[in-house]
Amino acid sequence: DAHFWAHSCHKYIFIFGIILLLLCFFLWKRIDRPTGNLVKSLLGIYAFVLFTSSFAVIFRSEPIVNLRNQYDSPLASFQFDRFFYLYPVLWYVALGLIFEIIMQLATQSHGWKRLLSFGAFACVYLICAFYVLEGSIFKNNLRDLIKPEGSTNLSWQVYYSPQQYQDAADYIYNETGKTLDQYRIGNVGLVPAVAIVNGFYTIDGYSSVYSLEYKHRFRPAIAKELEKNEANRQYFDEWGNRCYLFPSDYTGNVFLSKYTHASFQNLEFDNAVLRELGCTYLFAAGEIVNAEEKGYRLITIIDQYEYTYFLYIYEIL
After folding, report:
1. b/e map of 95-127 (b: 16 or more CB within 10 Å)?
2. Element holding 280 (H helix, E strand)
3. Pair 117, 109: CB distance under 8 Å
4. Which of 90, 169, 227, 268 is least crowded, fewest Cβ atoms below 10 Å from its Cβ?
């Protein structure tokens, strides 16, 4: 996944490959059979990439999208373009074939031609290596290891804040005697995965596959908030993998650390629906303004200087 999102140098691989293919075309009669097979493989990869890219452009074009949306079928929303996840592998294979073809040509050449072939190999390798290093997360990770005090990236410990969530679990246990498996929480302005990793049971989460029936049960809890934020409504109704308690004050997949100074001015969840889903507490990234009037009781705020979040813990009345 990191390779899929990283800065890509495939355009350079493509250009180098085209130049190499043209060269092999003019030298075809002088190329031995193994090298010829490598050339055919590289040509096949380029043909596949060209075909699938063209298909994606057509499939996502406005006339075709409008046509698909006229029918209630999986084709309306199925993401065929996910095959692009294969592309990094294909470009790596293409680069390997380019190197191998150059080396094969070099071994079949003599004098200045062999020197030129090895020079071409070094040129392709160094250019691609530079762009991969420049655009990859490896450089950032190495810098963070060498000089962690100057890093702006969140470490695992900082992002998941295990001690802070342990303090929250201990507080609830000391006040109620309930263990983690005896209640459910909802997250407002916080990523549910953080609570889940720390052992909490949540009513919300990010999942590629979950029951559509649950999504329909969950939606009434946030219906009024979705009405106030059209982007959030589309995000939930038309996709829905993030089954979140979307607050209308913020748009999309929010990550509200303590440094954002979050607050929720006019939160309107349906508490009856939340209770039906088994939710006992809300963990909020900031203050719910007029919480008592809205049916929430603030029981504690878990905050210490080194923690990433403000955890405002509200009990649903």
Report:
1. bebbbbbbebbbeebeeeeeeebeebbeebeee
2. strand 279-284
3. yes
4. 227
Report pTM. 0.68
- Amino acid at the residue 252: G
- Which residues lie closer than 8 Å to 135 by C-beta, 6 or more apart? 6, 7, 8, 9
Give the distance, in angstroms, between the CA of residue 65 and the centroid of all CA atoms in the same chain: 24
pLDDT greater than 90 at residue 259: no
Q: Which amino acid is at 41?
A: S
SS3 of 25, please? helix
Overall residue count recorded for the chain in this entry: 317
Helix, strand, coil fractions of the chain, as percent rounded to 5? 60, 10, 30
Largest Cα separation within the chain, whole Å, is 87
Contact 123, 47 (CB under 8 A): no
Q: Other C-beta atoms within 10 Å of 249: how many? A: 20
218, 230 Cβ separation under 8 angstroms: no
Pairing of strands 287-288, 296-302: unpaired
User: What is the bridge-based pairing of β-strands 184-188 and 279-284?
Assistant: parallel
Structure tokens at 97: 């074939």
Identify the residue whose tokens are 């929303």: 77
Q: Please state the rounded mean pLDDT for residues 305-311.
A: 85
Q: What's the confidence (pLDDT) of residue 92? A: 82
pLDDT tens figures, 187-226: 999 999 999 999 999 999 999 889 999 999 999 999 999 9
